[in-house]
Design brief:
Elements (H helix, E strand, L loop, with lengths): L2 E5 L2 E4 L4 E8 L4 E10 L6 E6 L5 E3 L7 E6 L4 E6 L8 E10 L6 E4 L3 E6 L1
């Protein structure tokens, strides 16, 4: 069974920083795109950032210049460095990955989510 486990959320003041981590584990042949999405209270889940296996990145306009996504392929882990945090960044952040497993060449899975709260 393949799963994503996130860590690093918490409470931070506006202007502060947090680093989220997400590690994939289980029967994995390879991992394609990985990403971070967020869902604020009363809103739909939205993209924050994605990164391909080759390192190509994509950011939502709302986080561009403040957030940095990276990955360590040897550790099957993706990171999200969040700087200059704003109260509107408050949300549950979800990790997402496309994984090639022995039974499924294109398995999309989600982490359980980690709460980030930014106080003003």
């Amino acid at each position: 069974q393949v799963q994503l486990v996130e860590s690093g959320g918490g409470l931070v003041q506006a202007g502060g920083s947090l680093r989220l981590s997400c590690a994939a584990s289980g029967s994995i042949f390879s991992i394609g795109s990985m990403g971070w999405y967020r869902q604020a209270p009363g809103k739909q889940r939205e993209l924050s950032a994605t990164i391909t296996s080759g390192g190509r990145v994509n950011y939502a306009d709302s986080v561009k210049g403040r957030f940095t996504i990276s990955r360590d392929n040897a550790k099957n882990t993706v990171y999200l460095q969040m700087n200059s945090l704003k109260p509107e960044d408050t949300a549950v952040y979800y990790c997402n990955a496309i994984i090639w497993t022995p039974s499924d060449p294109y398995l999309e899975i989600w982490g359980q989510g980690t709460l980030v709260t930014v106080s003003s």
